[in-house]
Amino acid sequence: MPSKASSVIIVGAGVFGLTLARELCQRGYIRVTVLDRHLPPVPDGSSVDISRIIRSDYADAQYMKMAVEAVAGWESEYSRYYHESGILIISDEGGHSYLNKAEEQVQSQGGEINIFDNASHIRDVHSEFRSGTLQNCEGYLNPRGGWADSAEAVRHLASQCAALGASFVTGTRGSVDSLVLDGMRVVGVNVKEGPPLLAEHVILATGAWTSRLIDLASSAVSTAQPVGFIQLTADEANLIRRMPIAIDLDSGFFVFPPTLGSNILKCARHGYGYETHVSMTTPAGEQQQISAPRLYGDGTRALFLPQDAEISLREGLRRFFSPSISERPFVKKHLCWYTDTPQGDFIVDHHPHLRNLFLATGGSGQ
């Protein structure tokens, strides 16, 4: 175990980086520094937006156990940011392996769910979806789950880290270009301005940007997923305010209840995603093509979706809502970056070859 006085640099002020910083500070580490281009909540971070799903519905027992513990935290310490709307998970009739396994796991944990055999049953219970074209599907509702105001939750988490003694470096001094190597040992990071920042231990919690810093080979790939936002009137929002989050496993489409106050209806799709090829220089000095987000200096994102992505969001909206909502223009749309691993597993481990380097990535939209 490293000394509690060892210097630790965490690159990335998203939920992975900040939870690591908090945990290290709580364990008594006194020299923890978090680097990012922005103070959290980072504008283009995958853990930041008006909402993120909070669920314990996983087909894998270990991830479900972790998620159940996380939901308990949202219901207590982070309750001011959490909205328990329930989660409706559907698939085409005939069964879906993930849905069936998740259903089994929830029930094995003592969770009470409402099982739907067909679309008519769903519409009877959830009148919010009666005006859509939903048909030929089955699924279940887990009332224990919902969504979080993720930007404010991350802001609160960052304030906890600062109160515990973690330091933050942002701007050009917090923008990491590459690792500093001494042979096969990582001794710090090169930043956009000024001399390198050195540390005895470096943690990359850089999400979709990780492949810009190290070669992830076949371990993970960065992909962009489409997100769209529709403005509702107060009356329209009130009619569907009590809807659960709805997730269609076959198409990957999901939609949130209208956000409080702003009445924004947010929808997205989690599928194979899109790649954007950029060049990186490997530690050996070789040029390599990778998929990674393009870096925007101010953290803004282009309001753009590929045509087929927007079509898929419209198709998903039509299944649940009337044309007055499903055909309305998006007030905002963008691509949200994930780091997908082959089986959707997190990568939280020491690097196999570079000493003093720890990875916390592979969120896979989980």
Could you describe the 3D structure shown?
The structure is a single chain. This protein is an alpha+beta fold and 366 residues long. Helices cover 23% and strands 29% of the residues. It is built from eight helices and 22 strands. The chain has an eight-stranded mixed beta sheet with strand order 6-7-5-15-16-17-14-20, sandwiched between helices. β10 (176-182) and β11 form a beta hairpin. The longest helix has 15 residues, at 61-75. The mean pLDDT is 92.
User: Which band does the percent of strand residues land in?
Assistant: 25-35%
Q: Give unreliable regions as ranges.
A: none
Task: Give me the side-by-side strand order of the main sheet.
Answer: 6-7-5-15-16-17-14-20
Count every helix, treating DSSP H or I runs of 4 or more residues as helices: 8
